[in-house]
Amino acid sequence: MTRTLNHNEQRHCMRRLALASLFIVTLVSGCSAPSQGAEQAWAAEFDEARQIYSAAFPQAAFADNHISDAELQEAKQRFISCMDAAGFPGTTFDERGIRSIPNLGQTDAQYAEADNACDDETGVMMILYLHKEPRQNPDNIDWGILIADCLVRKGVVETGFSAADYNAATDRIVADAASGQEIDVLSYYPFVVDAETAETALIDCEDKPAS
């Protein structure tokens, strides 16, 4: 299980998002709309999103502190069109929101330039995040608490594993990824089970920590 992180995972989500095709960016389809309370609880993240993305479309999407299904779909389509225009045709998003960008011989630098430019133009990564998270975590509880509790509940780490432990491991992943190292995600966490079980639990807990 390998992933490379990006944007310091978008400041607050900076733990949740990542470089293109390698990081698991989940999207729960069929979720109900977030409550008004969720929109208030996530107001700071929307404020930050408006500061990060200056292009017209993401600014409009973030304006009401709510990402609709239609805005999410438009953001993905705009990103696909942008990547196509930049010389990366065939970009797709699967049902979980993970995007796949075919490499037709371009360099990593060309890919990074196109990916960053298209994300700036469309806000797709933050839109994915702010569509999913207020629905899944309406009270905006620290993500580390939710995931640490989930991992303990699944029995893949010892009972004392905490949000601080999870966050520290994630910070090390971010730092090592930023230095260009290849990341073996599982090695950063004190799992007490086999790798396959640990990987499944980590994916499940980062996707649906209440599971």
Give a structural overview.
This protein has 211 residues and is mainly α. 51% of the residues lie in helices and 2% in strands. It is built from 9 helices and 2 strands. The chain has helices at 36-41, 43-52, 56-62, 69-85, 108-122, 124-136, 143-153, 163-178, 195-207, and strands at 92-93, 99-100. The protein has a two-stranded antiparallel ribbon with strand order 1-2. A hairpin with a 5-residue loop joins strand 1 (92-93) and strand 2. The longest helix is centred in the middle third of the chain and has 17 residues, at 69-85. It is globular, with a radius of gyration of 17 Å. 36% of the residues are buried.
Short summary:
The chain has 211 residues and is mainly α.
Strand order of the largest sheet: 1-2
Number of strands: 2
- Sheet of most strands: 2 strands, antiparallel
What is the strand content? under 5%
The stretches of 5 or more residues where confidence is low (pLDDT under 50) are 1-32
- The structural class is mainly alpha
Provide the gyration radius in Å: 17 Å
Topology:
Elements lengths: L35 H6 L1 H10 L3 H7 L6 H17 L6 E2 L5 E2 L7 H15 L1 H13 L6 H11 L9 H16 L16 H13 L4
Antiparallel strand pairs: 1-2
Keywords:
9 helices; disordered N terminus; mainly alpha; 211 residues; two-stranded antiparallel sheet
